[in-house]
Design goal:
- This protein is an alpha+beta fold and about 110 residues long.
- Helices cover about 15% and strands about 30% of the residues.
- It has one helix at about 1-20; strands at about 30, 35-40, 45-50, 65-70, 80, 85-90, 100-105.
- A hairpin with a 6-residue loop joins strand 6 and strand 7 (about 100-105).
- The longest helix is centred in the first third of the chain and has 17 residues, at about 1-20.
- It is globular.
- The termini are far apart.
């Protein structure tokens, strides 16, 4: 099936870009490039905060401020994968058991 081959090839290209090697658990990708974002750290208990509008990133409206805990899966060597233009972060949403490889645009990162 050509469509499946293309999908798997694209997934491999994305993982190669970040240097990510899937291990033990398959975690789906979540496109978060539209958001401004801030990382509180890169270890267990740290979070990535994100919002559509920059003014809401650090406490604006409740409707536009989000956060996910860093998912520290023990089989991975790290949980934050920084590329030249994008960063992929393993996150735990604490909603319905969902974990994602959330991809952010580095141009929208805020310290």
């Amino acid at each position: 099936m050509q469509l499946l081959d293309q999908y798997l090839d694209l997934q491999k290209q994305i993982f190669d870009y970040f240097g990510y090697v899937e291990d033990w658990r398959a975690i789906p990708i979540d496109d978060a490039r539209e958001y401004f974002w801030h990382l509180t750290g890169e270890a267990h208990g740290d979070e990535v905060k994100f919002a559509r509008e920059e003014k809401n990133l650090f406490g604006g409206t409740k409707d536009d401020g989000y956060s996910n805990e860093i998912y520290t899966q023990r089989f991975l060597p790290k949980w934050v994968y920084r590329g030249k233009d994008y960063t992929m972060i393993c996150v735990d949403t604490h909603t319905d058991g969902n974990k994602f490889l959330q991809i952010f645009d580095n141009a929208k990162e805020r310290p």
